[in-house]
Amino acid sequence: MTKFQEKVYKAVSKIPKGETRSYVQIAKAIGHPKAYRAVGNALNKNLFLGVVPCHRVVRSNGQPGGYVLGTKKKIQLLQAEEAE
């Protein structure tokens, strides 16, 4: 795991259940405001789905964006968290 991935995973793991952040917000939070695509790439390599809730990271326009288990699963996870 790279230091960049480590920073991304740490920031994403702090997103509370029922909330989302954009790729841009995560990039800014880790001190790399223009690296939002790299944030997406790092999350695509996330092997710690139970610990790093990458489904909580969405596009700036609110659309779900990609997810390693598919967009449909990402939407289901987000909806389930809203219902809790």
In short:
The protein is mainly alpha-helical and 84 residues long. The chain contains 4 helices and 2 strands, in the order H-E-H-H-E-H. It starts with a helix and ends with a helix.
Description:
With 84 residues, the chain is mostly helical. It has one domain: Orthogonal Bundle (Arc Repressor Mutant, subunit A), CATH 1.10.10. Helix content is 48%, strand content 5%. The protein has four helices and two strands, in the order αβααβα. α2 (23-29) packs across α3 (36-44). Its EC number is 2.1.1.63. GO terms for molecular function: methylated-DNA-[protein]-cysteine S-methyltransferase activity. Pfam families: DNA_binding_1. It is an enzyme of class 2 (transferase).
List keywords for this structure.
single chain, 84 residues, mainly alpha, Arc Repressor Mutant, subunit A, two-stranded parallel sheet, 2 strands, 48% helix
Task: Report the CATH topology name.
Answer: Arc Repressor Mutant, subunit A
How do the helices and strands follow one another from N- to C-terminus? HEHHEH
Low-pLDDT segments, ≥5 res:
none
Please tally the helical runs, counting DSSP H or I stretches of 4 or more residues: 4
GO molecular function: methylated-DNA-[protein]-cysteine S-methyltransferase activity
Domain Methylated-DNA-[protein]-cysteine S-methyltransferase DNA binding: 3-82
Catalytic activity: a 6-O-methyl-2'-deoxyguanosine in DNA + L-cysteinyl-[protein] = S-methyl-L-cysteinyl-[protein] + a 2'-deoxyguanosine in DNA; a 4-O-methyl-thymidine in DNA + L-cysteinyl-[protein] = a thymidine in DNA + S-methyl-L-cysteinyl-[protein]
EC number: 2.1.1.63
